[in-house]
Amino acid sequence: MSAVPPLSGLLLVDKPAGMSSHRVVSIVRRLTGAKVGHAGTLDPMATGLLILLLGSATKLSSLLLEGDKGYFATALLGRETDTLDTSGATLQESPVRVTRIRLEETLAAFSGPIMQIPPMYSAVSIDGARMYKLARKGIEVERPSRPVTIYELELCSFEGNEFEISVVCSKGTYIRSLIADIGHALGCGACMSALRRTRSTGFSLEDTHTLEEVENLGADKLLIPPERILEHLPILTPPDFFMQLLLHGQRVDGVKLGASEVKYRLYGENGFIGLLTRQDEKYGLVWRL
Fold first, then answer.
1. Res. 277 pLDDT band, cuts 50 70 90
2. Which residues belong to the active site?
3. What is the rounded CA–CA span in Å between residue 100 and residue 164?
4. Which residue in 245, 236, 227 sits closest to 268, CA to CA?
5. What is the pLDDT of residue 195?
């Protein structure tokens, strides 16, 4: 009997509210027995697209972390909290006198490249210390602002003290901070009350599966091939002599391969092999199927 090949690929999960991303990873690891990583966590209160990588595909996580993200978020005006969402302790409450026109004008001011200070309750490190660990001890430190880009920011609904927005943004953007900054600009404060990730690095919510589906159907039937991550890269199929050098861990000059791009999908006579990258004008196989 031939051995069952190890699982390798992407598993797109619709994370439920109230569960940490690391808990989802743990559940999938238990169900599959495979090595499991992720391509960007979601806060426990958030739901939606969580990209998991299984087996050898975990080595491709950095390619997915770089991509843009999409979210649908709900915000509560007139309340500021220590976590910037409704799960935190209330720091201040203010009267709300905001019209739809003023809200739309304020949102427009936050579109495009902006500077953003990450929240204290986040996984960002300052001098080697995770900020959320400092925050839990009541320690607040100065955080440098970072450039992020808000590509799309649309007001979906506004009723009473609550509004909903659709956001497409660059990596590293904190929607909690975006909402808090919008509230500050409006003069009444705001905090996030719900968040759902709708897209990430070319994948969307429509591609996801619930944990129940993963358990009942089996992760092996739901996996997306690792090559899907690299679809945007050009294909390179070198002559057999150079292919053997690459497969044995040697690096080959780009001129000999006829290559000039930074990254390629490497193909052989039997199909997809792995990821080829350039360093100092030579190419090497950094990941293989």
1. confident
2. 43
3. 12
4. 236
5. 97
Is the model's pLDDT at 99 over the cut of 90? yes
Give the percent of the chain with pLDDT over 90: 60
Quickly name the fold that domain 69-200 has: Pseudouridine synthase (3.30.2350)
The residue among 107, 84, 98, 103 whose CA lies nearest residue 167 is: 107
Q: Look at residue 57 and give its three-state secondary structure.
A: helix
Q: What is the pLDDT of residue 5?
A: 58
Instruction: Note the pLDDT tens digit of each residue in 105-129.
Output: 999 999 999 999 887 666 666 666 6
Report the Cα–Cα distance between both ends of the chain, in Å, rounded. 22
The whole-angstrom separation of Cα 70 and Cα 278 is 31
Find the Cα–Cα–Cα–Cα dihedral 222, 227, 233, 239, rounded to 10°. Answer: -160
In angstroms, the CA 15 to CA 48 distance is 5
Q: Are 14 and 209 in contact (CB under 8 A)?
A: yes
Distances (CA, A) of 101 to 104, 110, 167, 195, 196: 5, 15, 18, 23, 25
Instruction: Report the Cα 43 to chain-centroid distance in Å.
Output: 11
Matching fold, domains 69-200 and 233-288: no
Boundaries of every domain in the chain: 9-67+202-225, 69-200, 233-288
Q: For residue range 36-65, list pLDDT tens digits in order.
A: 999 888 999 999 999 999 988 888 888 887
CATH (residue range 233-288) = 2.30.130
**For the domain bounded by 9-67+202-225, which CATH number is listed?**
3.30.2350.10
Residue the block writes with tokens 């991509």: 67
Q: Tally helices (H) and strands (E) across the chain.
A: 8, 18
Return the pLDDT at 2.
42
